[in-house]
Amino acid sequence: MTPSRGRQPSSLVVATLHEEAVAFCQRFGLIAIPGSRRLVRKVSEVLGVVRGERRLASHSARDRSIRADAPLSTAHGGLVIQLAVVNLKGGVGKTTTAVHLAASLGRKAPTLLVDTDPQGSASRWAQLSPELPYRTVAYPHHNLKTRLPGLAQGYQHVVLDTPPGHIAIVQAAVASASVVLVPVEPYLMDLDRLAPTIDLLAQAGAQNNPDVLVLLTRVRSGTRSARGAREVLGARGLPVLRSEIPLFEAYGWGYGLVPPDGHAYGALLEELLSSEVVAGVSHESL
Ligand SMILES: Nc1ncnc2c1ncn2[C@@H]1O[C@H](COP(=O)(O)OP(=O)(O)OP(=O)(O)O)[C@@H](O)[C@H]1O
Ligand SMILES: [Mg+2]
Question: Which of the four CATH numbers 3.40.50.300, 3.40.50.1240, 3.40.50.10490, 3.30.70.270 does domain 81-273 have?
Answer without folding.
Answer: 3.40.50.300
